[in-house]
Amino acid sequence: MISMTQENPVHRSRLFRDVSLPLTIAILILVGTLLILLGLLLFPVNLGLIPFSPDGQLGLLMVIMAIQMMTLGETPIGQYTRSWSMIIVGIVFAAMGVVSCIVPGVLTGVIQVLLGLLNILGGGVLLTKRFISLRHGTRTPAAGPLPQDIKNLLVTQTVLNFVTISFGITMLIPGLVSGMVIAGIVVVNGLLLFLLGSLLTKIQ
What is the torsional sign of CA 85, 158, 130, 141? Predict the structure, then answer.
């Protein structure tokens, strides 16, 4: 009994002690978890096993985008300083998401088009910036080859951008692909965010 009481505080301290996890990585884990959960739920939804609310899905995606804007200054078209204007836009997006979840049908079309355009524009802009930087890097070679972690990071970001563009297209053109494909895209998006967070942790 004495040994057990002595071990419990140690285990509790390990479980509840502070974690040196950067805010960026924590947000990536949160967003990745939400997207994976959403994507996994979409599989039984498309099989007709559980009910589905399209407005709830769109509202959740808007709230996720608002969290990224307000905490990191990260938008679909790049990362910016967390200014008051960025926070106000994040609040507006969060409010639209909440209204969509609570009052179905009011903002469905608006949010769907907005998410589609932002995902396509954001993925395209980031891909273009990365392509230009790589072209510039080939013209002005560095001192040595890129580390493997940096290469993996660039590949992961590129794949993530293509997945983002694909999701945006499915938002703008409903019925283009099956619901199962959309569910797979959402799950892959979440998994890529986990991979991105892992690579960023290694590099840091």
Answer: positive
- Total-model pTM: 0.78
Query: What does the domain layout of the chain look like in residue ranges?
Result: 21-138+145-203
Q: Among candidates 82, 68, 187, 81, which has minimal Cα distance to 118?
A: 68
Query: Per residue in 49-106, pLDDT tens?
Result: 988 888 888 898 898 888 888 877 777 766 777 778 888 888 999 999 999 989 888 8
